[in-house]
Amino acid sequence: VTRNRITDYYRKKKPEPFSDKQVVRKEEDGAPLMLEDILPALTRDPEDEMMRDMIWDEIENALDEMPEEQRDVFIWNEFEDKSFKEISAETGEGVNTLLSRKRYAILFLRKRLKELYNQL
């Protein structure tokens, strides 16, 4: 289910700089690092599909290892495009609590996926 939501999300969504998602790394020319710079092109090339599957597997594994509260907030906000106000209304948690959970989720993903990123 998570893999399908992630795939659907990136099919629909326009590319956004990682800086919008609190990633501070920039390319040498000063341009923000884009998701499309990391993921293989959306072609039907078997090698690209294998690489993409490997990346999604690692993302799914990282999400599975993440504490449930952080994972839920991250998925709702990033993949289901829910605002923090919407999530707050549904869960009864404060917006600042949700922001904190997402921050910790991002830090967890950065640490967990760093080796994969360096290999690419």
| Percent helix range | 55-70%
Number of helices in the DSSP assignment: 6
Distance between the termini: 26 Å
CATH secondary-structure class:
Mainly Alpha
What is the gyration radius calculated from CA atoms? Answer: 15 Å
Q: Judging from the principal axes of the Cα atoms, what is the shape?
A: globular
Spans of at least 5 consecutive residues with low confidence: 15-27
Q: CATH homologous superfamily?
A: Winged helix-like DNA-binding domain superfamily/Winged helix DNA-binding domain
What is the total domain count? 1
- Biggest beta sheet summary: none
By CATH, the topology is Arc Repressor Mutant, subunit A
What is the element string, with H for helices and E for strands?
HHHHHH
Helix/strand-derived category reads: mainly alpha
The second-level CATH architecture is Orthogonal Bundle
Strand content: under 5%
The oligomeric state of the chains shown is single chain
Number of strands: 0
Average per-residue pLDDT, rounded, comes to 76
Tell me what you see in this structure.
The protein is mainly alpha-helical and 120 residues long. The protein has a single domain (2-119), classed as Winged helix-like DNA-binding domain superfamily/Winged helix DNA-binding domain (Arc Repressor Mutant, subunit A), CATH 1.10.10.10. Helix content is 66%, strand content 0%. The chain has 6 helices and no strands. Helix 3 (46-65) crosses helix 6 and helix 4 packs across helix 6 (95-119). The protein is globular, with a radius of gyration of 15 Å. The two termini are 26 Å apart. Mean pLDDT is 76; it is low at 15-27. InterPro entries: RNA_pol_sigma-70_dom, RNA_pol_sigma70_r4_t2, RNA_pol_sigma_r3/r4-like, WH-like_DNA-bd_sf.
